[in-house]
Amino acid sequence: MASSTVTLEKTTTISSGGVDVPSSPTTMRTRLLKKKGRKGGEKGRCCGHKYELVGYEALPEFLKHNEFVLDYYRSEWPIKQALLSIFSVHNDTINVWTHLIGFFVFLALTVCAATMVPMEYEASSSPHIAIFTTSAMANNTGPVNQLMVLIDGRRAVMAMHSYSLRNASMEPALTMTSSPPVVPHHHRRVARWPFYAYLCGAMFCLLMSSLCHLLACHSEHASYVLLRLDYAGITGLIVTSFYPLVYYTFLCDPFHRSLYLGFITASGAAAVAVSLLPVFEAPRLRWARAGLFACMGLSGLVPILHKMLVFGARPEAVITTGYEMAMGACYLAGVVVYATRVPERWMPGRFDIAGHSHQLFHVLVIAGAYAHYLAGLVYLSWRDMEGCSS
Ligand SMILES: [Zn+2]
């Protein structure tokens, strides 16, 4: 079959500092090759057209974010081609997919939690509860594997967590105690909204980030709006990360619960307001952005230290703090990578497609968010078992 090739040229005027320069426009040729009867994996090719990827120097100012990523940019592509570029290779492909996959992972975790963790209210009377423990738990001398099975006649729920107490070896044998129920206050379980608010915050952040990386190349206006949604997503993730920590830790201390929840929510609202300023996305303010989000995250150390002062002897407090430290380490490493732009600053152009700092930052965000999800499960288990008795 004969292949036909139509070559079009699109001239784009590059703005300099927000002002068009009509007298000496820097022109960029974007060839639109329409090819039929030919298959191939040429870069940027989609839906029968080929929108050529361009280098950093050819970008308009609003797309210049990282001078160490030299090539494979999409520049001012139509929205349809930008959407379809999710299936082609460019320097944002991995950024889009890391957080899109992360979004679906958290969606699956939310569905798992909604179907497997008991509801806040039970329609039936008190659930039949069977607690399996290792024999070591009974005398509190060894590692504890606790498998809790809650059966209410309609669903069986298993929540398992394993942790160590002191330093004895693992006891493989399970013993079973089925009555009386161990939950002292099971008329109503602890509120679920802080846990699900966190899951929604994580999903919103991951989805907005993915969308931003996919579509911000379309136009300056799209870039402005999507970057604000991206910043709002990061803020939402940080704010909602506080909710399970503060709500369940200070379940029986309304003053500190309201104080911490109010502080982080107000901080988040202020961060979103500041991020609306156009100057907020300026490349030179990279450290200011990183610093703002890092300070919000680091303020979480206050309720965590408070938790350890009050509940430091309890295994649930130690486990959740461990997860929170893991989350903090991931986020801080992510912030440092994001702001320093390592490794691409060492070898500009070498990591354009894979391995640049923003991709590492995305993976670290997902790892941190997952650690916090595990902490949330322990908080629920702790407060369901004890209510306000501790
Ligand atoms: Zn990103």
From TrEMBL:
Annotated keywords: Membrane, Metal-binding, Transmembrane, Transmembrane helix, Zinc
Chain sites annotated for binding Zn(2+): H213, H358, H362
A Gene Ontology BP annotation from the UniProt entry: response to hormone
GO cellular component term of the entry, any: membrane
InterPro entries documented for this protein: AdipoR/HlyIII-related
TM helices/strands, residue ranges: 96-117, 195-216, 231-251, 258-280, 286-305, 317-340, 360-382
Location relative to the cell: Membrane
A molecular-function term among this protein's GO annotations: signaling receptor activity
Region (Disordered): 1-26
Name of protein: Heptahelical transmembrane protein 4
Polar residues: bias regions: 1-16
Keyword Transmembrane helix included in the entry's annotation: yes
Lineage: Eukaryota, Viridiplantae, Streptophyta, Embryophyta, Tracheophyta
Membrane topology, record value: Multi-pass membrane protein
Organism: Eleusine coracana subsp. coracana
KW Transmembrane helix (keyword) present: yes
